Amino acid sequence: MSKLPSDRRNFIKHVTLAAGFASVPILGHAVPAKQKKLFEISLAQWSLHRRIKSGKLDPLDFARYTKNTFDIHAIEYVNQFYADTLSDKLVKELHTRATGEGVKSLLIMCDNEGSLGDPDKKARAKAASNHRRWADAAHALGCHSIRVNAHSAGSRTEQMQYVADGLNQLADYCDKIQINVIVENHGGLSSDGQWLSEVMKLVNRPRVGTLPDFGNFVIDRETGKRYDKYKGVKELLPWAKALSAKGYSFNGKGEEREIDFYRMMKMSVQAGYSGYVGIEYEGENSDEVQGIIKIKTLLESVHSKLA
Fold it and tell me: Nearest Cα to 77, choosing from 144, 172, 174?
């Protein structure tokens, strides 16, 4: 076979190389990067409190159940379901189960450990000390926070000072193990967004923040006094390290009857929040599983509209 002239060989070589390069996508242009989600979805364990209290769901199976039933891969524990059995062994088991399922443990919601805003100095210190075991558990589980309450008594200013002192005492310990202390609007003055934001300013610590709940804005249950939920969430967002998507009941379109989820999430995204949004179903007249699914579907719909 006769040889091709050198200029002809070079021409074919260049054409072949060009064709090869044309088939290779240019990084950053031909293959678009996967768009980051505006927020992720997690499940608060309280959404299943009736199922757990009735014995239908073992609290140890929370991670597996959440993943398999709802295709949710991040969870928020409630300390009430482990208070009587808390131990290093229990926490290790919870961690093993969650990581084995590929589920993230985000936080522990803490109740019944005393009031961090107790007017009595000794009682306040005891409450801060009581919360430490949950901070330790959160650290062992790989959580970023413990959620606490800001219940107190006294004048508006006095309660602010008491709560700030209790939070500082607890944060002194939690700082050492890199756990955040986050306050939920959960009744009393803590459901007054302006008051709680002033507490945050008074404490002024990077690991002390808020967990704005879409629905907990009843200041006084006896009088029915309420705080505007949208104003309250907006005021608490600058310190938010988690969000609670509270849901009670839904209309035929799948929208929450009392809370405008689109408005809440648009406000949150615009404020720069991009973390997890925890589903917390509290409807009394519907199945918990269906309630959780409805909130998840609603959040996904809102995300699509905002993206």
Answer: 144
* Three-state secondary-structure class, residue 57: coil
pLDDT tens digit at each of 307 positions of the chain: 434 444 434 433 443 434 443 333 434 444 445 678 999 999 999 999 999 999 999 999 999 999 999 999 999 999 999 999 999 999 999 999 999 999 999 999 999 999 999 999 999 999 999 999 999 999 999 999 999 999 999 999 999 999 999 999 999 999 999 999 999 999 999 999 999 999 999 999 999 999 999 999 999 999 999 999 999 999 999 999 999 999 999 999 999 999 999 999 999 999 999 999 999 999 987 799 999 999 999 999 999 999 9
CATH tag for 35-306 (out of 3.30.70.580, 3.90.1640.30, 3.20.20.150, 2.40.360.10): 3.20.20.150
Sheet holding 276-281, edge to edge: 208-211, 180-184, 145-148, 104-109, 74-78, 40-44, 276-281, 243-247
Residue of 26, 25, 90 lying closest to 60 (CA atoms) = 90
Q: Please, what is the end-to-end C-alpha distance for the chain in angstroms?
A: 63
Tell which residue, 166, 159, 172, has the closest CA to residue 122: 166
| Contact indicator for 142, 95 with CB cutoff of 8 Å | yes
128 closest CA partner among 85, 165, 158: 165
**Helix/strand/coil for 219:** strand
**CA-to-CA separations, 57 to 42, 50, 83, 93, in angstroms, rounded:** 18, 9, 16, 16
The model's pTM: 0.88
Q: What residues does each domain of the chain span?
A: 35-306
